[in-house]
Queue: 3 jobs
Job 1
Amino acid sequence: MRKYLIDVNLPYYFSLWNNENYIYQRNINSQWKDNRIWDEVCEISENYKLVNGFIDRIEGIN
């Protein structure tokens, strides 16, 4: 199971997220708008309790 979603605005070819823990938004569907991606994330979050990590805080998604 992937743990992290990498935003489409970040570099695609970056060694940090080139492993099985990460999924890049482009690999899901590069044509989807942010709200479509977040709808999918929130749906998954109901089962897996996903969070957003920020420099100063952590927020639950849902």
Note: Helices lie at 25-29, 34-48.
Job 2
Amino acid sequence: MKKLSIDLENSLQQQIYNKGQDIDVAIMSYYLDNKDFILPCLTMYQNKDGGFGHSLYIDNYNPNSTAFVTYYALKLIYLFRTNNKDEDLIIKKALTYLYHKALRKDDLFLIAEPSNNNFAHADYFTYPKDIDLSLTMGIIGLTILLVKEDNPYYKLALNLYNKYNLEINNYKENNKNIIYKAILIKGLNECNIDHDLKLDETKLDIFNILEINDFLSCNKELLDRTLDNLINTINNNGLWDYKLNWHNNYPEGDVAEIKWLLRQSVINYYYLKKYNLVETN
């Protein structure tokens, strides 16, 4: 399999350091053996109530805490572990927000919350939207992956899982929300909790297979093709193209596209580093 050249790696790093957001630089630094930056960076996006906002997730400019952006922050913490007490405190505050303060309906977490409508955002986050299990499954999975069995939030997560067990077992994922189910399955497997859940592999594609494999190993052929495609599609400036459509008229969508170009490029770099597909001297 091809590897990312040293010249393109240097160009990519320069672009991220010069133009990326703090979290982009932190992710890159993590894979360059400097893990001290990512937690302080994440705390800049954490509110006093423990939840996360402030455009940590680029497509939602809402500065207030929301369940989705807090889920996204916890996912970053899981992927880029530092295993120190500061990390534990950030997780505790985030879970306190999710299980005691976040807006829920029928005990399910909402992707689209009312406060989003006061700020620029992609249509995906416009309130109201139909409520489904997806975000709740992801939060349950991350909770039991990030805390120990004697933690009260572990128990709250399992209570929520047991409450919606039948609906979860009947859940039909698509190629976009499949990641939430993968995270839940990973959590259940890691905690040795019996279940009959499995992914519908017909919903795997080149756009989700890398993220899915952060949690569950599957479809190595598709994974290899996707990694090869990353190397083939990087531009001469060390970045990948990124096309974005918020499906509304917010002008901030154009700025978000530029931000995603950098965020997705550093995430692509993370995958190439993860799978040892970057040339070395």
Note: Residues 239 and 265 are 6 Å apart (CA to CA).
Job 3
Amino acid sequence: MGFKVEFNSIIRIDILDNLEIGKEYEFENDGSRIYFDDIPIWLVRKDWAAVAEVKVTKQKRKEGKIKASYKVLYLYSKEESELLSTIFKRMYGWK
């Protein structure tokens, strides 16, 4: 018998369009995940479009879901987002 846990350096969720640097936002995701919380990580949309660098401020796993919060540290410019999105899609097998 085992238990699957994913360690993630990317938060991939549906994201609001009006994120602000310095603000905290809550999210929920399926699966038993642990997000890195002592270093900045990437925030991307479900289609792998890079949005921001964030820091996870709290996370709680329960019944196959994770409820967590992140603080926005940096928002990507259009050019940065396009470059990173291309890299993520290539790395994670999206075309």
Note: The two ends are 36 Å apart (CA to CA).
